[in-house]
Amino acid sequence: MIEAIGLTKRYGAKTAVHNLSFQVRPGTVTGFLGPNGSGKSTTMRMILGLDQPTAGQVTVGGHPFRQLPNAPRQVGALLDAKAVHGGRTARTHLLSLAQLSGIPAARVDEVLGVVGLQDVARRRSKGFSLGMGQRLGIAAALLGDPQVLLFDEPVNGLDPEGILWVRNLMKRLASEGRTVFVSSHLMSEMAVTADHLIVIGRGQLLADMSVTDFISANSADFARVRTAPIDPPRREKLTAALTEAGGQVLSEPDGALRVTGLPLPRISDLAHEADVRVWELSPHQASLEEAYMRMTQSVVDYRSTSDALEGFQPPQQQGWGQHQGYGTPAPPVVQEAPQQGWYAPPPPGQNPYATTPPAGAPAPAVPAAAPAPAPAAPPVAPAAPMAPAAPAVQTTKRDSNEDAR
Ligand SMILES: Nc1ncnc2c1ncn2[C@@H]1O[C@H](COP(=O)(O)OP(=O)(O)OP(=O)(O)O)[C@@H](O)[C@H]1O
Predict the structure, then answer these.
(1) I want to staple 151 with a disulfide (CB 3.0 to 4.6 A). Which of 39, 138, 182, 261 is the partner?
(2) Does some domain include residue 367?
(3) pTM
């Protein structure tokens, strides 16, 4: 088990990690998520004794890393796949690591086979592709057959087959009772690899919970309802009925309704009672990406200046006639749902991780950034304020050994 208590790291005026406390337990894959620069690598370096905490402590199996007897046999890590002497062959690189830790040479050939590099074992690593380098780094982490494994973005540069392989490897290692702590920016991959998540933003803990709990705590499932296109007035009638029953209704770009706050059978009953023909009634389950974006949108440090989402601007509202696609102009009935790439924050008071609660003030009925609904429209719940998606900017990753030198 890895345990951090009040872990803090400052570099001069910069606080990279602040008062972080968490446990990474054996038998599960724990994902370590956070925007660029949020302190994931710094935390991993402190776990591995490469960085000294400014305050607090982190232990592996109850001991600080540097006090672990024969640490390479107990902890394996991939921090930076490029931290390899390029003039050495894959096998020589692993052999030198093995010799330093008293690991038999036979294990080197074993791990080369595990990561699929057996055929290039005698090639110099400087000629390796990004993916081959990652595999070599993973081989090094597995060398001591350790109980605790740390992987910093292990799927970086891997092809789909390689990504699938890493996923299965992580799961297998966890199923063997090992502690597996893995950082990644690939939410879709984390969703199917990790059981538990630790999420940080600007060096502070945002969440420590199962993937399932994280998604339900930070997203709102909704139902998509599409009415018969020949009947816009009926759509308005249904909107009014849904709203009256306590649902929140937004308009999707294709004219469908996005309904939250009502179960599907209730929506179906209300449509039936309102005598509205429904062509689609489908559940939408939020993804990990959506939940993650909602939680971390306010702690993203690096955002492109050419990003249309910069400055938390809401998407342009477009008229009903442009979107419904049925050729029948009609007045706007409901506000539009956020379009793809936009993630509205959870309703006020429902995000347990919000750093700035509204200080007792009730949330405004209509967010300042959102246009007021048309006066003629039936009462609808206000659309949540829009927020930008993650930055497309890729920041350069620092040498993981920078602080050790
Ligand atoms: N040696 C250092 N000197 C000064 N600042 C540092 C040092 N190491 C890290 N930082 C800063 O600490 C913050 C956290 O960096 P870190 O690399 O841990 O983030 P990260 O979450 O791993 O980011 P990424 O997802 O981009 O890899 C960043 O602002 C970084 O610039």
Answers:
(1) 182
(2) no
(3) 0.72
Euclidean distance between CA atoms 357 and 246, whole angstroms: 25
User: What is the interface pTM, i.e. ipTM, of the complex?
Assistant: 0.97
Tally of domains in the chain? 2
> Which residue has the least CA distance to atom 30 on ligand 1?
37
- Same-domain pairing of 211 and 223: no
* Residue 403, ligand 1, Cβ within 6 A: yes
Q: Is 54 in the pocket of ligand 1 (CB under 6 A)?
A: no
Provide the token pair at 110: 């074993």
Q: Which atom of ligand 1 is nearest to the CA of 45?
A: 18
Residue with CA at minimum distance from ligand 1 atom 26: 36
The reply to whether 363 falls in a domain is no
270 Cα to the center of ligand 1, angstroms: 53
Q: How far apart are CA 237 and CA 212, in angstroms?
A: 35
Note whether residue 256 is domain-resident.
yes
Give pLDDT tens digits along the chain (405 positions): 999 999 999 999 999 999 999 999 999 999 999 999 999 999 999 999 999 999 999 999 999 999 998 898 999 999 987 777 878 899 999 999 999 888 999 999 999 999 999 999 999 888 888 889 999 999 999 999 999 999 999 998 889 999 999 999 999 999 999 999 999 999 999 999 999 999 999 999 999 999 999 988 887 778 999 988 766 788 889 999 999 999 999 988 888 999 988 999 999 999 999 999 999 999 988 889 888 888 887 777 777 666 544 443 333 333 222 333 333 333 334 566 555 444 444 444 444 444 443 333 333 332 333 333 333 333 333 233 333 333 222 233 343 334 433
Rounded to whole angstroms, the Cα distance separating 233 from 135 reads: 59
Cβ(37) to ligand 1 under 6 A? Answer: yes
Nearest-CA residue for atom 2 of ligand 1:
11
Q: Is 100 exposed, middle or buried (0-12, 13-18, 19+ CB in 10 A)?
A: exposed
Q: What is the CATH number of the domain that holds 159?
A: 3.40.50.300
Which of 7, 8, 11 for mutating ligand 1's site (highest number of atoms within 8 Å of CB)? 11
What's the token pair of residue 256?
């469908």
Range of the domain at 7: 2-216
Pocket flag, ligand 1, residue 40 (CB < 6 Å): yes
Q: Is 302 in the pocket of ligand 1 (CB under 6 A)?
A: no
Indicate the residue among 216, 251, 282 that finishes a domain: 216
- Together in a domain, 59 and 148: yes
Domain assignment of residue 78, yes or no: yes
- Going 38 to 39 to 44 to 47, the CA torsion angle's sign is negative
Query: In terms of domains, do 240 and 255 share one?
Result: yes
Q: Please answer whether residues 181 and 150 qualify as being in contact, where contact means their C-beta atoms are separated by less than 8 angstroms.
A: yes
